[in-house]
Amino acid sequence: MYIQPVVMMDFETTGMSPALGDRVTEVAALRIVGGVVVERFVSLINCDVRISPFISQLTGITQSMIDRAPSVEQVMPELVRFIGNDALAAHNVGFDEKFLLAESARLGLVPNHAGVICSVKLSRRVFPGLRSYALGALARSLGIRFNGNAHRAEADAEVASAVMLHIAAHLGEKYGIREVDPRFLQQINRLTAAKVPAFLQRPAGPAIGQVTSTVRRRKSGII
């Protein structure tokens, strides 16, 4: 289980790069506390852009849906407040965070999340040897089912959250790490794949011990 909240986020967009003028069309952010999703923020987003036929076919998001959606000026401040200072996760977090930062900067907003966790990179390190780490293929390998349409923000965030919970359960079952701090996963993300098995097998190494003891001291009011 997670001893600090993690917000799993997914954006749907008009393209791959905000630097090339691409914008967001939909967002889902799901807050994981302990071992469950306890809260969610989901919205289509109107950035006053045209949706290409390719994007509509891929995502199912049409121009009329976007034209009726809340404006980006309304959605982004609410999203940034929702994320708050929790850790931010995404399946390929570099993609989603760059859109979060770009859309926030347009409005003078400054996100304050406590670092990022990439569930793609994390899955490669915790579950090595799978054929594919694309979200759909990874979910099938782990026995996780989609409850909605792939390439819609809420469905993708739901499955990515299930992957994160599966990772936490796996760390407990295989390595005895019953309480997972998001900062511990960030440490795994920064390691090369070759170093991860030894890192996880340490019974109470500094990376695990320091994080856990700090959280316990904070809960007891020492810090």
Low-confidence stretches: 204-223
Helix coverage percent = 40-55%
Order of strands, main sheet, comes to 3-2-1-4-5
Q: Return Rg in Å.
A: 18 Å
End-to-end CA span: 23 Å
Strand tally is 5
Shape: globular
Mean pLDDT figure: 90
Helix-and-strand structural type? alpha/beta
Quote the beta fraction: 15-25%
Most strands sheet: 5 strands, mixed
Please work out how many helical segments DSSP would assign.
10
Listing every helix as H and every strand as E from the N terminus to the C terminus, the arrangement reads EEEHHHEHEHHHHHH
Question: What does the model show?
Answer:
The protein has 223 residues and is α/β, with parallel strands linked by helices. Helices cover 48% and strands 17% of the residues. It has a five-stranded mixed beta sheet with strand order 3-2-1-4-5, sandwiched between helices. Helix 5 (119-126) runs parallel beside helix 7. The longest helix has 23 residues, at 153-175. It starts with a strand and ends with a helix. The relative contact order is 0.15.
Concise synopsis of the structure shown:
The chain is of the alpha/beta class and 223 residues long. Helix content is 48%, strand content 17%. The model is unreliable at 204-223 (pLDDT under 50).
